[in-house]
Amino acid sequence: MRGPVSAPTIYIFHGDDTFAIQKQISGMAKRLDAQGMAELNTTRLDGRSVTPAEVRNACAAMPFLAERRLVVLTHPLARIKSAAQRKEFLAALEAVPESTALVLSFASPLDDIGLPWKRHGLRKPKKDHWLVAWAKKNPQKVYLKGFLLPGGQEMAGWIREYAAASGGEISPQGANLLAHLVGRDTRTAANEVDKLLAYVNYRRAVDEDDVTLVATDNTVASVFDLVDALGQRQGTRALQLLSQLLEEEDALRIFGMVVRQFRLLLLGREALDEGGQVASRLRIHPFVARKITAQARYFDQTTLENIYRRLAEIDEAIKTGEIEAAVALHTLTAALCQ
Predict the structure, then answer these.
(1) What residues contact 151, with CB distance under 8 A and at least 6 apart?
(2) Suppose 288 and one of 24, 146, 180, 187 were both cysteines; which one would form an S-S bond, judging by CB atoms 3.0 to 4.6 Å apart?
(3) What domains can be seen in the chain, in order of their start residue?
(4) Are the C-beta atoms of 186 and 149 separated by less than 8 Å?
(5) CA of residue 76 relative to chain centroid, distance
């Protein structure tokens, strides 16, 4: 007879849907916490600053009054540069005991030819990332899962599903407007749905008017206001708005929303220059299109292209740890208002 199958010791979660990754990790913590000892049996480490020895020690520690302990390592490969370091890293993973669940959490997708890249509008990689390839060779030890943000046409459906799972309902029209306001940001979408369901007290479906009233008086609206100030070169106001945003929200989320806004402005500017309608060309809600049209008039095409190029450079610098998102946002805001 075959014995019981052991649970994986390594969990590799990767992708741009960090909200889904966080939910997955939280679910693991709850399942591992049968005796209410989650805090004592959970260790969170950052690969940008932790040493290999600290990771090994955290994994080797015995769980306290529980079957397993959870170790979450973010930015796992930040200090893995050479082939020798890769080999040492994989050896450390293979040595993780069954009493530990080690989660390697990546905030962007690793190359994995098994993911539905095309469905999400992304180019499929030619081969697997070396860590993904290793994981696929060790299926009993490793659990590999990719988390890609919903595609643009999928976001309204995601919002309706999240509302239903939360015990409420949002109309197709309301979900469509909210999707155009938040883009593909599932974390912001979830926060807005939670507020909207509370606003209607879970007694009826959230409709388009509710979204206009509630969801536009928040972070999304503040990002619109920030870009307004940037377009009008109102440096003091822009920095004040940015400071308020950073007090309320994570800097990376704000940066992502700013990137999305300038992407829409770039596309909107192109539509205006060609004599087209922003709403139909970008396939966005008329409410959002009106805001994009007004803001796009503050910038010419060349300026928007330069800003978007700079945002891409900043994004790369943030991912490689060269700069913090909050610092990058302040620097960008000051530069654009000169």
Answers:
(1) 119, 120, 121, 184
(2) 180
(3) 10-146 (3.40.50.300), 152-215 (1.10.8.60), 221-336 (1.20.272.10)
(4) yes
(5) 17
- Tell me the two tokens of residue 68: 């397993």
Q: What is the 3-state secondary structure (H, E, C) of 289-327?
A: HHHHHHHHCCCCHHHHHHHHHHHHHHHHHHHCCCCCHHH
pLDDT digits (tens, 9 = 90+) for 153-165: 889 999 999 999 9
pLDDT at 3 (0 to 100) = 43
Q: What tokens appear for 236 in the block?
A: 């003091």
What is d(CA 310, CA 318) in angstroms, rounded to the nearest whole number?
Answer: 12
Residue with tokens 């004592």: 40
Distance separating alpha carbons of residues 6 and 38, to the nearest angstrom: 21
Q: Using CA atoms, how far apart are residues 81 and 201, in angstroms rounded to an integer?
A: 52
Nearest to 38 by CA among 14, 67, 60: 67
What type of residue is 36? G
Mean pLDDT of the chain: 87
- The contacts of residue 215 (CB under 8 Å, 6+ apart) are 177, 178, 181, 182, 192, 195, 196
Half-sphere exposure of 259 (CA within 13 A, CB side): 18
Contacts of 301 (CB under 8 A, 6+ apart): 266, 269, 270, 273
Amino acid 123 reads R
Please give the pLDDT value at position 2: 42
Measure the CA–CA gap between 37 and 33, rounded to whole angstroms: 6
pLDDT single digits (tens) 256-290: 888 888 888 998 888 888 887 887 787 777 888 88
Each as own residue / partner, the long-range contacts of residues 133-139 (CB below 8 Å, 24 or more positions apart, any chain) are: 134/90, 134/93, 135/10, 135/12, 138/10, 138/94
